[in-house]
Amino acid sequence: MKNNRVFLQVDYEIFKLIGKYTKDGEKISIDHLDCLIIERVDDFQRNNMPCYLTNEQFAKIFNTSVSTIKRKVGNLCKIGILQSNVTLRNDAGKSSRVRNLKVIYSQIGVCRSTFNLD
To answer: What angle, rounded to 10 degrees, do the helices at 32-46 and 55-62 form?
Structure first.
């Protein structure tokens, strides 16, 4: 039997982000899954590697739907914790979009004081 488990050590500062935020009049909730997404991206950065995981790959890792991952990554980008850069790549005449996610470390420490916590 193949073991596909991914173990993450989550920084306590990331778990402190759990709560409800208001950004530009929009309410955004941060929960445990958001913290795991942040930590998975951070794991790549700590190893000096880009995080090219797709929504489908995140969904498989965390056993959830692609639409949930899409919404959560979008919200984390909206409040500035994650940065998403999409580039076009051309492989043998076939072009594809590649997303690179990064954690914006400065936002983790200031997020709770920057936004209105509901």
So the answer is: 120
